[in-house]
Amino acid sequence: MKQYNTYIFDLDGTLLDTLDDLTAAVNYALRQHGMPEHTREEVRHMVGNGVRLLMVRAVPDGDKNPRFDDAFRTFREYYMEHSLDTTRPYDGIPELLAALRQQGKRVAVVSNKFYAATRELCRHFFADTVEVAIGEHEAEGIRKKPAPDTVIEAFRQLGVSKENAVYVGDSDVDLQTAVNSGLPCISVLWGFRDQAFLEAHGATTFARKPGEILQ
């Protein structure tokens, strides 16, 4: 696989297996507000485009439900307290990031998870290897993925250009983010979407395990 100077990673489903904690937070919020819960596999297909859309998909009638804002607030509060209960890096990810940094590569994370949670998870798991961590941004005019804005912000904070950079993710949103950012994309197969789904959305380069990104 081609080597790059800068690696921009998605977080959920790419670096971290967050599905159990997300499922627990979704179902806690739904229970608190008298709504039906979802299975882990159902939540797997809801994630990928930010936590608000996750809850829009989880709540009956989405954000048209008069209790949606309360359920979403409960989800956020619960998740911030429990985002480290079961979340772990995928096997081989810490070694991949360490190797990239040892080789002098620049490394950033860009996620649609809310900003505080993105920074906390990266600080907890990848403090020595992820240089910049950007979540759903509150600054006016910075749109979430698949818009290129947070990727552009990552380059700005790293102090690099997009020349010889690559985006690494596990979803159709990541593929579109790469296209919108003018970057090639490596789609990982250990995350929340399978190869058939990714190919149907235009993926052409795959990593079946983290070590392949270094090869």
Automatic annotation (TrEMBL):
Q: Gene Ontology terms, cellular component aspect?
A: cytosol
Any idea of its EC number? Answer: 3.1.3.18
Q: Which InterPro entries match?
A: HAD-like_hydrolase_sf (IPR050155), HAD-like_sf (IPR036412), HAD-SF_hydro_IA (IPR006439), HAD-SF_hydro_IIIA (IPR006549), HAD_2 (IPR041492), HAD_sf (IPR023214), PGP-like_dom2 (IPR023198)
Its annotated pathway reads: Organic acid metabolism; glycolate biosynthesis; glycolate from 2-phosphoglycolate: step 1/1
Q: According to its UniProt record, which reaction does this protein catalyse?
A: 2-phosphoglycolate + H2O = glycolate + phosphate
Extract one GO molecular function annotation from the record.
Answer: phosphoglycolate phosphatase activity
Q: Which GO terms describe its biological process?
A: DNA repair
Q: Which residues form the signal peptide?
A: none
Q: Belongs to which family?
A: Belongs to the HAD-like hydrolase superfamily. CbbY/CbbZ/Gph/YieH family.
What is the protein name stated in its UniProt record?
phosphoglycolate phosphatase
